[in-house]
Amino acid sequence: QVQLVESGGGLVQAGGSLRLSCAASGRTFSMNAMGWYRQAPGKERELVAGISWNGGSTNYADSVKGRFIISKDNAKNTVYLQMNSLKPEDTAVYYCAKSRGVVATQLSVDYWGKGTLVTVSS
Q: Measured between alpha carbons, how far is residue 22 from residues 25, 42, 71, 84 in Å?
């Protein structure tokens, strides 16, 4: 059974930065694409960023392009989301996800983490 555990969320002022981590256990995800999603209050869950199995390709939502960076360390079974220039509209619960496939786009999620809350104050 795969477990994904997110960490690094918290309260930050607008313009600040946070780095989210997602540690996987139960099996390696070195051959799988991974992604970060978020869900704000009253809104649907949306894809924030995806990364291919080897980290060679990434995909970002338009709203975070140029501000967020997704990366993957297969040796540590960990995926990261560096979030810079944060805005109040980035406030949401952020979820780590494992894809069945290998590409960064059109993730086919089969496992989810429980989420970590990011709150950006104005």
A: 10, 24, 11, 18
Rounded distance between C-alpha atoms, residue 103 and residue 89, angstroms: 28
What span, in angstroms and rounded, lies between the C-alpha atoms of 71 and 8?
15
Give the C-alpha separation, 15 to 88, whole Å.
9
Measured from the Cβ of residue 45, the count of other Cβ atoms closer than 10 Å reads 15
Q: Are 107 and 50 in contact (CB under 8 A)?
A: yes
What distance lies between CA 18 and its chain's CA centroid? 12
pLDDT at 95: 98
Within 10 A of 85 (CB to CB), how many other CB atoms are there?
A: 13
- Integer Cα distance of 98 and 112 in angstroms: 7
Question: Per-residue pLDDT for 84 more than 90?
Answer: yes
